[in-house]
Amino acid sequence: MLTDTHAHLDFPDFASDFDAVLARAEAAGVHRIITIGTTVEGSHRAVALAERHRNVFATVGIHPGQAHETNPDFIPQLRTLARSPRVVAIGEIGRDHHRLPSILQPGPDADIATQDQAIKDAQASVFAQQLTLAAELGLNVVIHERDAWDDTLAQLAPYHGRLRAVFHCFGKSPQHARQLLAHNHLVSFTGIVTFKNAAVVQETARSLPAGTFMFETDCPFLAPVPHRGKRAEPGQVRIIAQHIADLRSQSLEELALQTEATANNFFRFSPSPDCP
Questions:
Q1: 2-267: what fold?
Q2: Backbone dihedral region of 167: left (phi > 0), alpha (psi from -120 to 50 degrees) or beta?
Q3: I need a surface site. Which of 14, 23, 94, 187 has the fewest CB within 10 A?
Q4: Which residue from 125, 159, 161, 127 is spatially nearest to 143, judged by alpha carbons?
């Protein structure tokens, strides 16, 4: 059995065939799906889905790309949502400097530099508040990091020993991964690992010790080969798992047992998937 540890089932991409998507996941041996909050409204939707479907669980959180547009009173709303027994982490939270104004509109513009800093400051504030909330509630965190490695690690450092993090959609080197493992954090691999040009992340997936990584689809994004360019869905996590098993010269069954134990531990699931 497998878990898709990072899906976006509340997105409109799944509105027309949601039940069929869940059925295909179950047929593929994916017995559990964690749907991820990215806004307050999306977190509400994620929790509602988890409360309606026994094989769906939720996280609640504000994506860094939404930080500068988030209402300042978001923490009480997330705290209330996180009281649901179907919520298993705070996320996805973090830092993302990939689409700053200076990158989208390069040039020596002082106003753009000011916009950059305002977005970075908003991300830092929203990230810090959510880390504090997670520590308060005794929940681990799902981290989104893109082009902001040092800033993300610097903000996470004060929470070492108080919570653990999984860096989702991990695409960096084994050396980067080991920086996280040194503090008992984890990484999670998406369909990117199946791409022909993904040599770095393939080497990371091949070399990490058992118990330090999980699988995800990040659906509807990043569908694995042979579905690349199409909508991803949770059942495709089996393709990702099989690809990594092949990279590691393991059987899928052995690797699935290892990653299920990792997911159970990180998200504090009962060993039984049939939670009411």
A1: TIM Barrel (3.20.20)
A2: beta
A3: 23
A4: 127
d(CA 113, CA 67): 18
Collapsed DSSP state (helix, strand, coil) of residue 145: strand
- Cα–Cα dist 270/215, whole Å: 18
Taking CA atoms, 98 is separated from 101, 103, 203, 242, in Å, by 9, 7, 24, 30
Instruction: Provide the token pair at 255.
Output: 């690797």
Give which of 50, 44, 49 is closest to 62, Cα–Cα.
Answer: 44
Q: CA 255, 38, 193, 187: dihedral to nearest 10 degrees?
A: -50
Q: Alpha-carbon distance 7 to 218, whole Å?
A: 5
Q: How far apart are CA 59 and CA 86, in angstroms?
A: 8
pTM for the model stands at 0.95
Give CA separation, 141 vs 52, 90, 134, in Å.
23, 5, 7
Is 92 exposed, middle or buried (CB count within 10 Å of its CB: 0-12, 13-18, 19+)?
A: buried
13: tokens are 């991409």
Q: Residue 201 has which token pair? A: 């992340």
**45-82: buried (b, 16+ CB within 10 Å) or exposed (e) per residue?**
bbbbbbeebebbbbbbbbbbbbbeebeeebbebbeebb
Q: What confidence tens digit (pLDDT) does each residue in 40-58 have?
A: 999 999 999 999 999 999 9
Are the C-beta atoms of residues 128 and 155 closer than 8 Å to each other? yes
The CA distance from 142 to 188, in Å, is 10
Give burial (CB, 10 Å; 0-12/13-18/19+) of 182.
exposed
